[in-house]
Specification:
The protein is an alpha/beta fold and 225 residues long. The protein has a single domain, classed as TIM Barrel, CATH 3.20.20.70. The chain is 35% helix and 19% strand. The chain has nine helices and eight strands. Strands 1-8-7-6-5-4-3-2 form an eight-stranded parallel beta sheet. Helix 3 packs parallel to helix 4. The longest helix is centred in the C-terminal third of the chain and has 15 residues. It is globular, with a radius of gyration of 16 Å. The model has no long low-confidence stretch (mean pLDDT 96). The protein binds D-xylitol-5-phosphate and zinc ion. The site of D-xylitol-5-phosphate (DX5) has 22 residues, from strand 2, strand 8 and helix 8.
């Protein structure tokens, strides 16, 4: 179904993890401002079985691209050490996982908000929406992982859309304010179902950067949604 984007704002968020690691700023430039947010995946080799970018990289991005909305997705343990470094680096929004220190989730989200930036909470595929009950009121964004976190290029898990629908209805009933973001396995064949299910922010890594013309891909899917 086309036209959802015309009725409500849909944010396209390319994930830099899918870009050529030897040409990251070239990859950003190749998007030619055809995106809304830049999604930055942070991995610690512990919470997920991979490593990616550090706070110095985020800071360098912020300096080179002061106007970019930097959507930082923390897939890490030891939030107390790492989270403040990304606040300082200039993240616009920081998302933490509900599975990381669940007993501290409320406090961690409050800390992010108190530092003056937006706070998101993410769910791995096996985690239920009910686990977020105590923090939905606080969250600016809920990120539904539609693949196992840690790597780009995986297959979209269809049942994630059920969670998206659940989050849409909870938001309606309780008048919550969060945006719903989906991350993992998004391509031109499933992007419309994600938007129709209620996603506001669409992350895509491989689909954008493995395309010969990332800006054209973004423009094309924007026309479809
Ligand atoms: C995976 C990351 C994703 C990843 C998405 O843990 O959170 O942001 O870059 O990549 P694709 O779109 O290739 O699944
Ligand atoms: Zn991500």
């Amino acid at each position: 179904m086309a036209g959802q984007a015309a009725m409500r704002k849909i944010f396209l968020a390319p994930s830099l993890l899918g870009a050529d690691p030897l040409n990251l700023s070239g990859s950003i430039d190749s998007l030619k401002n055809n995106f809304d947010w830049l999604h930055l995946d942070i991995m610690d080799g512990h919470f997920v079985k991979n490593l990616s970018f550090g706070p110095d990289f985020a800071l360098a991005l912020r300096k080179k691209y002061p106007e970019i909305f930097l959507d930082v997705h923390l897939m890490i343990d030891q939030l107390d050490i790492i989270l403040p470094l990304f606040v300082k680096a200039g993240a616009s929004l920081i998302t933490i996982h509900a599975e990381t220190e669940p007993h501290l989730l409320h406090a961690s989200l409050s800390a992010i908000k108190n530092s003056g930036i937006k706070a998101g909470v993410a769910l791995c595929p096996p985690t239920r929406v009910e686990n977020l009950e105590s923090v939905l009121e606080l969250a600016d964004l809920v990120l539904v992982m539609s693949v196992t976190p840690g790597f780009g290029g995986q297959k979209f898990i269809e049942s994630s859309l059920k969670k998206v629908r659940e989050l849409v209805s909870l938001r309606e009933v309780h008048r919550y304010n969060y945006l719903i973001e989906i991350d993992g396995g998004i391509n031109e064949n499933n992007i419309c179902s994600a938007v129709n299910a209620g996603c506001d922010v669409i992350v895509a890594g491989s689909a954008v950067f493995k395309n010969q013309d990332p800006a054209a891909w973004l423009a094309k899917v924007r026309g479809q949604i």
